[in-house]
Amino acid sequence: MVLSIGGMARLYLIAGALNAMLAVGLGAFGAHGLKGRLSADLLAVYQTGFQYHIYHSLGLVLIGILALHLPASIWLKWSGALMLFGILCFSGSLYLLAVTGVRWLGAITPFGGFAFLIAWLLLAVAVFRSNGVNV
């Protein structure tokens, strides 16, 4: 059986894979390039950004796989969009805070965290509303 991947599934599978690649690169940079250059507190902030980045990259891959079965789900579409937004705001602000020391960037982080929460909720809604589609 040949599976054609298009639309939302393709978008979120690519976004998830590229974000996972980016997270691994940034994680290695943090572990090797920033160790000894940042305080323990700022290194922990960077590590938190990395952890949420990699987890939510895998979440995007999951959304892409589910989109193969639920290609018309607006709930799934918004879940993926919010997960991408969350990565940018949550992990992005923590990465920047850690490397620049600019503390006000921490004010952006909760917006990303809230986006993550809503993204996971919408993912659950998408599956719940799937009407028994083989997911």
Q: What features would you describe in this structure?
A:
The chain is mainly α and 135 residues long. It has one domain (7-128). It has helices at residues 7-33, 40-69, 74-100, 109-128. Helix 2 runs antiparallel to helix 3. The longest helix has 30 residues, at 40-69. It starts with 6 loop residues before the first helix and ends in a 7-residue tail after the last helix. 36% of the residues are buried. The mean pLDDT is 93.
The sequence of SSEs as H and E is HHHH
Number of helices: 4
Number of domains: 1
Mean pLDDT: 93
Distance from first to last alpha carbon: 17 Å
From the helix content, strand content and strand pairing, which structural class follows? mainly alpha
What is the number of beta strands? 0
- Helix fraction by DSSP (H/I, runs of at least 4): over 70%
Largest sheet: none
Calculate Rg over CA atoms: 16 Å
Poorly predicted runs: none
Q: Estimate the global geometry from the Cα principal axes.
A: elongated
How much of the sequence lies in strands comes to under 5%
